[in-house]
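Example 4.3 (complexes with small molecules)
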Amino acid sequence: MAEVAAPQGPVATGETLLSVRDLGKTFDVSAPFLNRVLQGQPRVHLTAVDDVSFDIPRGSTFSLVGESGCGKSTVARLVVGLYRPSQGRVEFEGTDLARIQTRRQMAPLRRKWAMIFQDPYASLNPRWRVADIVAEPIRYHGLLSGGQAIRTRVGELLELVGLSALDGEKYPHEFSGGQRQRISIARALASEPDFIVCDEPTSALDVSVQAQILNLMKRLQRELGLTYLFISHDLAVVYHISDYVGVMYLGRLVEWSDARLLFSNPRHPYTRMLLDAIPDLEMSGRARTPVGGEVPSPIAPPAGCHFNPRCPFADERCRSETPMALKVGVGEVRCHAVEEGRLPEPESA
Amino acid sequence: MNETTTFADSAGATARPRGNRPVLEVEKLRVEFPTRKGTLRAVDDISFHIDEGEVLGVVGESGAGKSMTGTAIIGLLEPPGRIAGGEVRLEGERIDNLPYEKMRRYRGARIGMVFQDPLTSLNPLYTVGFHLTETIRTHSDLSEKQARQRALDLLSEVGIPAPERRIDQYPHQFSGGMRQRVVVALALCANPRLIIADEPTTALDVSIQAQIIRLLQRLCREHGASVMLITHDMGVIAETADRVAVMYAGRIAEVGPVQEVVKNAQHPYTEGLMGAIPTIGGTHEDLVQIKGSMPRLTQIPSGCAFHPRCPKAFDRCRRERPELMPAGRSEAACWLHDPAEKGRRRGNG
Ligand SMILES: Nc1ncnc2c1ncn2[C@@H]1O[C@H](COP(=O)(O)OP(=O)(O)OP(=O)(O)O)[C@@H](O)[C@H]1O
Ligand SMILES: Nc1ncnc2c1ncn2[C@@H]1O[C@H](COP(=O)(O)OP(=O)(O)O)[C@@H](O)[C@H]1O
Ligand code: SF4
Ligand code: SF4
Ligand SMILES: [Mg+2]
Ligand SMILES: [Mg+2]
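Answer. The structure with iron/sulfur cluster bound is encoded below.
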């Protein structure tokens, strides 16, 4: 596979906190060994993430969107080190995470990031009191010593996310979904991280509660200067929260750009299709281009551009050659038609 | 008046037949669950109607009672849940007290159903074709051969490519989107007067959601069926429904024409809900926040159930329960719209 033109330096003015380069992850999804031998089945690999590159400037929010199974969560897990990359690298403040060998080298870096998951219940230990859940990163990283100091800090964290210090005595099941997500956020903030990876943090919540959490996340970002990698399939949420947005399709980052530009002037045919598909609360009555087809299996993605079977602009080259990332404005697009200048302007302004 | 629609004569109809006669009337419907701790009321005295050819959207956050209302109407409440009061009429005929066998025949023939998970409507042991031909033959006197032909036509009508190849396959051989297409075909195959669709697209990806919504909309129009569309997605409602009912804590908070409810909400809950939804192209400012969350059934507040969260609550709200009353071009269950209150408030300045 050819080299991708890596973007030069930080994408915006300001320092790059996280840099992802040519990142790839392949899973072995073969049938069990014995079945393979007996039935003569070959090994099967699934490329969940393929050659993904982007930068996140400090203090900003970079979101990944895309349909289920496109690889968003896998990127999130690679970035926080829950998976080892099959290819490429993740650099945090200029340090290549794969080069770090020992726990001791990792520890000071490790406390600089945290993760919030979709299901606030599954990610909180039901047998622990909330105070212990929130205190866990403080104890793990040895940030404070002494029961009283930790208790005080936990109380502050709970109040920071809109709960009461007294809530520390309760157990997770005594809280609603939105309150549990606040607890996850308090825990994530406990190690005083610079960077938080949020994987669908509001997808399990009702809209009124989602609004509370999104407002909270924005307030914390302003007050604490946090950087977010935000993952969601909800484009309106992403529009609302992001500075930069990347669109994934079958493991590849097909386009990324400034959030407002991406939504007002989408380049990639898939981005256009996604934007066209979402129902419109504004009831503008705009005409839609119907989109056919479904996302193909990631085990055997179409050759060339993975989107070619559904793309109205596909040609011979699209069916055989993988499009490379092309710099467009502040962002990048992977599409032959964009590169060849044969893509019509999007219909809606 | 009660003309029987056949497959043939409905196929050509393009305009949505609109009469003033309601297809469905629900009056003071109450659904209760006896539990050890006492009786829980999931649906509390709600009344609404759906006109011929009309799409009524039912929205609300989780636990509002949307699905319970739908399942009560089609007589599929799981015991110990039961209808504890009120009436349901289909084309003027009372159906909430029908014997089991008769109601079973009405389901499918006169009321079609589409649920969130297509697998609840499809038996994994039977082929897609078997599901369709069985339903067609139960509700018509077509021969087996004719029924199969009809099933093939339906499959191509709902956009299944190569139906002759697909008809003898099993549900698990279809993708999620394809299965939901089959369920739509199944719901429509006896030309019912009413379709109840409960979160028909929630489990699907954005691009597939749009396909299914459009399909449902087009087919119901062509077949002249009215629709009760239950969803928590206001965007889907805004694009699909004629009128919308907003549910909160087992009651209807507001009901009215869709543009009115979205753009000119009359109930403080609806107003908060609309402001809480992020929109593409909207501002990046904070979303409207409703404090707290929906109460549990065991803790429904007195008077107006919304009062602890309502920024406009006043004394009377805590004591007396408001019923739906005229409010702008809609109806809202809120004391602010009581002419007596309006007079009083004007007096106060
Ligand atoms: N541990 C694993 N083993 C095998 N395959 C995996 C594993 N984790 C992820 N995959 C596959 O990788 C692809 C990307 O998965 P990922 O969970 O990142 O998708 P996603 O976009 O976050 O989806 P969703 O929105 O459904 O959560 C999927 O096809 C998934 O089935
Ligand atoms: N089997 C049951 N026993 C007790 N309560 C139930 C049962 N099923 C549903 N409920 C309650 O009824 C209320 C309405 O449920 P439902 O109609 O499913 O809500 P939704 O609007 O999310 O579809 C909820 O508070 C739910 O917890
Ligand atoms: S590369 Fe070709 S197939 Fe892919 S999105 Fe661009 S035009 Fe469509
Ligand atoms: S009745 Fe009172 S509490 Fe209820 S919505 Fe109206 S103003 Fe608010
Ligand atoms: Mg995921
Ligand atoms: Mg439901």
